[in-house]
Amino acid sequence: MFDVSEGADKLMAGYTFFQPFQRSWPPHNHTDQEEIYIFLNGHGAMEVYSEEETKSFVYSVEAGDAVTIPILNYHPVFSQEDPLEFIWCIAGARYWVGDKNKDFMTGKISELTT
């Protein structure tokens, strides 16, 4: 998707498409990565929190919105009645969360730190 000829040591990006009423699972955070989500199309919601007790809620996201996620903050995304499309960019150690923790793709855990 990205035509970038210069290599980056601490930067990754990707594109996510959610069908209506879909959510990211499990909520996860990173010990060594910051992120930003840039919403392209659709309407949804996003939570950003370091602990359940201190949860702050981004009530609504839509095209043109950007949400930053500090290190060690959980960041689930929810689509609503329309599909939701967004680009995510990560700065930090380069890895995919599923490679670092195999439980990520099982759906059998309630939260995950990588």
Overview of the structural elements:
- The protein is mainly beta and 114 residues long.
- The chain has a domain at 31-105: Jelly Rolls.
- Helix content is 4%, strand content 44%.
- The strands form 3 sheets. Strands 1-8-3-6 form a 4-stranded antiparallel β-sheet, with no helix packed on it. The protein has a 3-stranded antiparallel β-sheet with strand order 5-4-7, with no helix packed on it. A two-stranded parallel sheet has the order 2-9.
- A hairpin with a 7-residue loop joins strand 4 and strand 5 (56-62).
- The longest helix has 4 residues, at 97-100.
- The radius of gyration is 14 Å and the shape is globular.
- The mean pLDDT is 84.
> What is the multimeric organization of the chains shown?
single chain
Global structural class: mainly beta
Low-confidence stretches: none
In CATH, what is the homologous superfamily of the domain at 31-105? Jelly Rolls
Rg (C-alpha, Å)? 14 Å
- CATH fold descriptor of the domain at 31-105: Jelly Rolls
- Overall helicity: under 10%
Strand % is: 35-45%
Report how far the terminal alpha carbons are from each other.
Answer: 25 Å
Written as H for each helix and E for each strand, in order along the chain, the element string is: EEEEEEEEHE
Overall pLDDT: 84
Q: Any idea what the shape is?
A: globular
Secondary structure: number of strands? 9
Biggest beta sheet attributes? 4 strands, antiparallel
Our count of helices gives: 1
